Amino acid sequence: YPHQHVPERQLSEFNLTEMKAMLGSYTKVLFVRDPFQRLISAFMQGMGSSPSFSSFVQDVLASGHHNASETWKPLVSLCQPCLVQYDYVVVFGFLRQELGHLLRQAGLLADDLLPEFTDSKVRWTYSWLSEQMFSELSPQQKKQLSHFYRQDLSAFPFSSSLLMG
Predict the structure, then answer these.
(1) PANTHER family of this UniProt entry (predicted)?
(2) Residue 50 half-sphere exposure, CB side, CA atoms within 13 Å?
(3) Coil, strand, or helix at residue 40?
């Protein structure tokens, strides 16, 4: 934003006029991932001290929205899609296709710039892992998780998410 010389300010620190001017001068891209897959990733990376996935989920639910780690906090509360009109939403699992389109729209040669992505190759593994971990949860936990992430599930294209059921 050319009119600001203050380093690293949060968007919320600007007034509405500044926000509008700043956001209007950028192409806004949002990268999203199924919230259940984000939970699995956080658990696998040891983000909590829980011995099982089920107890990890219980800890996440007990933390609530306000005390949730950014790692598993609902995306809607992190990226403000109602406030920020994103030009592109890129879904994990389709990075190569979507980024290729985005780069072509920007007039760049996508094939020369894109590295090899593994996200589409791990979709099957994540699908299997998601089903295994989802089966560990009680019906109550499944219902609570769907409620916890209800805004993400309605705002983004996660139609195949296990939390939609």
Answers:
(1) CARBOHYDRATE SULFOTRANSFERASE
(2) 19
(3) helix
pLDDT one-digit tens code per residue, 38-87? 999 899 998 878 899 999 999 999 999 888 898 999 999 888 887 788 88
Query: Over the stretch 113-146, which tens digit does the pLDDT of each residue have?
Result: 666 666 656 666 778 888 999 999 999 999 999 9
- Amino acid identity, residue 21? A
Residue type, 142: K
Give the Å distances, CA to CA, from 91 to 14, 16, 149: 28, 28, 16
- Token look-up 């990268």 returns 31
- Residue 31 sits at the vertex; the CA angle it makes with 26 and 37, to the nearest 5 degrees, is 165
User: Is the pTM higher than 0.70?
Assistant: yes
Assess contact for 75 and 153: CB atoms under 8 A.
no
Q: Cα–Cα distance between 141 and 21 in angstroms, integer?
A: 43
Return the closest-CA partner of residue 130 out of 1, 2, 41. 41
Residue found under tokens 């984000």: 38
